[in-house]
Amino acid sequence: MVFSIGYHFLQDRAAAEELAQDVFLQLYQNLGGLESPEHVVRWLRRVACHRAIDHARRRKLRPQIGLDQAPEPASMPPVGDPMLSRRLRNLLASLPEKTRMILILRFQEDLEIEEIAKTLAIPAGTVKSRLQRGLANLREKAGRVLAEVAT
After folding, report:
1. Does residue 19 contact residue 52 with C-beta atoms inside 8 Å?
2. pLDDT at residue 62, rounded to an integer
3. Helices vs strands, H then E, count in the chain
4. Is the dihedral of CA 120, 126, 131, 136 positive or negative?
């Protein structure tokens, strides 16, 4: 779950692994204050979300490495339409950080509105409105991409 949140938000396996490592180290340091297995899951989800957003903000300030410096993928890419998957990931990555995290938690992690609200410590109404605006924004951007492809 922690790695999945980091990977889908950051779109970078190494960064997601580093994020997961940091989150679990922090879990080990705070284990005494956690009361139940459910509390641990909520805590992990919340910390992973906040760490992913923080990492994305820091990454904007750091220079990116070139393609020739990137390591080869460790596994085969998933079967499917790679162009469509890449475009969807790019459209999702173009959304504001908080909205993107809500969409990932809702559709990738399959969390309900109330769980997302607890995880991000924001009102459920805010989650609903950001979710709605994020989906509308994605639809609009996807429509523009399709119009460009058609011409």
Report:
1. yes
2. 62
3. 7, 0
4. negative
**pLDDT band, residue 90 (cuts 50/70/90):** confident
The structure's pTM equals: 0.60
Tally the C-alpha atoms within 13 A of residue 59's C-alpha that lie toward its C-beta.
Answer: 17
Rounded to the nearest 10 degrees, how much is the dihedral formed by the CA atoms of 29, 118, 1, 88? -130
Counting every residue, how long is the chain? 151
**Could you give the C-alpha distances from 21 to 6, 36, 51, 109, in angstroms and in order?**
11, 21, 11, 19
- The H-assigned helical ranges of 11-108 are 13-30, 37-61, 82-93, 97-103
Q: What are the b/e assignments for 102-113, b being 16+ CB within 10 Å?
A: bbbbbeebebeb
Transcribe 87-119 into DSSP letters. Answer: HHHHHHHTS-HHHHHHHIIIIIS---HHHHHHH
Q: Name all domains of the chain by residue range, CATH numbers in brackets.
A: 1-75 (1.10.1740), 81-151 (1.10.10.10)
Residue indicated by tokens 């889908």:
8
Report how far residue 101's alpha carbon sits from residue 95's, in angstroms, rounded to the nearest whole number.
9
Tokens representing 125 are: 């109404």
Phi, psi of 77 (to 5 degrees): -65, 155
